[in-house]
User: Fold this.
Amino acid sequence: MPLPPKGSELRIKIGGEAGFGIKAAGQTLARCFVDGGLEVFDLTEYPSLIRGGHNTYTLRVSPRPISSHVETVDVLIALNRETVDRHLDEMIDGGAVIFDPDATSTEGWLPSSKVRPVPVPLAKFAKEAGGPIMANTVALGAALALVHYPLHFLVDALRAQFAHKAPEIAEQNAAAATAGYGYVAQMAGDFWMGVEPKPGAPRRLLLDGNEAVGLGALAAGIGFYAAYPMTPASSLLHFMAAHERDAGVVVKHTEDEIAAMNMVVGAAFTGTRAMCASAGGGFALMVEAFGMAGVSESAVVVGVFTRPGPATGLPTWTEQSDLRYVLHAAQGEFPRVVVAPGDRTDAFNLTWRAFNLADQLQTPVIILGDSYLSDNRESLPYFDLETVSVDRGKLVAEGDVADHPQAVDEAGRYLRYKLTDDGISTRVLPGVTGAIQLGNSYEHDEYGFGSAGEPADMRAAQNEKRMAKLEIARTLVPPPATFGVPPAEADVAVLFFGTTKGPVLEAMRWLEPDGVKVAAMQVVTLWPFPAEEVSAFLGAAKRTLIVEGNFTGQLQGLVREQCLRDVDETLHRYDGRPFSPEMVYAKLKEVAANA
Assistant:
């Protein structure tokens, strides 16, 4: 794959030991490029150690739309020698390594014909500015000078970052950045023109996936959020807690995931829009109460943000291996909806829609994400709040139940689980006059009672009632999204779900100059599975490919099961790392050549 023309985009990687402030520094750098009107995408990678270990932050910057990270690096900020050893082979020819010669040995890698060394006394300048902890800030200033990007964007970003602290902290960091910038500006020359600010460009958000989910929940009118911290869902709890007072949301850090799931079922019973979230291991503890949400027809939203398993697995890395798990979690059978965001805009839109679906269908809705979505940020336009709507479905929140004949029997008694053609009963909240409320984990009759003798016809009727919701769900859930050319015109058609979206779309853009035509379909709603749309897409294609981040081909298995067909080729990744567009580009080109 040819590299973009020099100056068309910029890739910066920061590496060092945990505790060096690598992610915070990188996100400050990202903000200063976004404030300059540019597009960014970042990638944070770190091991699951409480202290220590090698951490990296990679930032991609471009004046044009981008949708993922890439493998190559233009500027490496090495805060220790290990960073050089691990990442030198990722550098482009002619790239630069910023390092402190007092802390990072040059033995074995300098002199080099591949990279340009940029030695900067990071610790010395940091100490002079106010303390050694600011060495990373010195390095940020040095990097901006190297790529000829205006310093004032970084100074403004630092002042905004530290605005809640003592004023001298922001000024010390600004001084540290200025020292690094001034030092490198004298030697930068014409090394790299980098990317220039775009004056007048529309303001952009810089969000990770959990922030986007949180904003979607707030837009939907969430009233209760409960969770026990578990990577990568923890930051959603932090986000909701930070906004609970101004948004009027009750946020509960529960003693465990069992309590979190039970609490959201209870909150939904009262009519509050309620959500919990965890990783796969935490969801395992929620599963019994998740089943109670199914049998009690509770309108709850559950975030399951995948990391590699089994068991503890790789807590800080990513995978798409929980698809089958969430489709079948909990004993017995009951309807659920599963949606999978591909990026942060999807995360916002699918979250507010998830609350509507939960209310309309009176059944649990799962938002299936992963660490690649949760932990990493991208620039994007402000969300259009005019598109957000609130639909509570068949809900009676006040008044007298007698005024709603569709919800009562001939004697005026409330039928919480009344048998209906669409499987959805009128939901009457506690406090409505005349409505006796019954909710439990047992199979029940139309009133909610577990009848003596547990008659077979009652069981069958209630089971059929609940499962009928899946047919209504098919008319309400988001359909698959398509990109590129129609499948009949494509050299290759690719099917995917979730965060493989970004690398796939990026690879498709790279293939355009090669004359390779690609059709792509993102399966947005994984359950109920859109078999008709997927069958039509694959059936019209010359050559087909599925890209998914697991070993067993879980999406491919659903296609076989639901569409009674298979694809020609697959691309899997299951080492805990996200797909890169380079990987997808190579596979798409290979499949197209074999068509």
The chain has a mean pLDDT of 95. The two ends are 20 Å apart (CA to CA).
